[in-house]
Amino acid sequence: MSANSPGNVRQEAVHRIQSATASVDAGSSSAFEICGRLGYATKGLVYLVVGGLAAAAAWGASGQTTGSEGAIQTLGQQPFGYILLWVVAIGLAAYSIWRLVEAFYNGENYSSHTSTLKRVGYVVSAVIYGALAWKAAPFSASSPQSGSGGDSKQSAAAWVMSLTGGEWIVAAVGATIIGYGLYLIYKGATDKFTDKYNSAQMSETEQKVARYSGRIGLPARGVTFGVIGVFVIIAAMSLDPNKIKGTGEALDVLASQPYGMWVLLAVALGLACYGIFCFVQARYRSFAT
């Protein structure tokens, strides 16, 4: 068969198409990995600020108990705050994109049942961090520099409660949040997060930092989710969406307990550790799409 025969021409065409497709897939995978790493790094910065402010408040210094939005507002008030807000907005938008990639491409090859649950969780995460990215952007009407913007959590809950049986939907959301908080505590306590790392690239010290930041940070975040979930259920049962609270109010509740200063300090340091955990994810996490 000659080199220019129809069979050879077809085989060469198929080979070129396959090579081109592989190149596109590799390029897309690389782009999505960049989104993931940038997103985790930005998320780590936000949680370091959240934990640092709460720890300062517990210690009696000039700090405050706040959540992600308050942390972003604090960053916006710093020198070069305008630039910091752009960095945070782009980073959180990248994280939102990565979560959508996980949701729709099943990059980590979960079983079908587990995949469905995780996909839904990833979509929810993408929406939350996408909205947070929009609020951080200096051009947004709800940007920390604009001084405006309402509380979307209460507004959304009020709309759901206006539906038939809406209070049960909100209560189910609260129970799900509590369940996720318990899962984070379990995940941290059992080192379920370490299998995501490229351990071969890590020194012994880096592996220890990765392990202990997850062991401390994940349960601390799980505790705050648990308190937030309780608030959501209370709001549903009382038909009062204004009782839905965020991370800052959850930290206030912890501070109001016996030995509250020490409880708040422990959780605050844990949230700062979660920020370090996110930095470790940004550097050493294995991204498969």
UniProtKB/TrEMBL annotation:
| Domain DUF1206, chain residue ranges per copy | 38-105, 120-190, 216-285
Membrane-spanning residues where? 44-60, 80-98, 119-137, 168-186, 218-239, 259-280
Q: Which domain of life is it from?
A: Bacteria
Keywords of the record, alphabetical order, are:
Membrane, Transmembrane, Transmembrane helix
InterPro entries xrefs: DUF1206
Protein's name according to its UniProt entry: DUF1206 domain-containing protein
Q: Give the organism, scientific name.
A: Aeoliella straminimaris
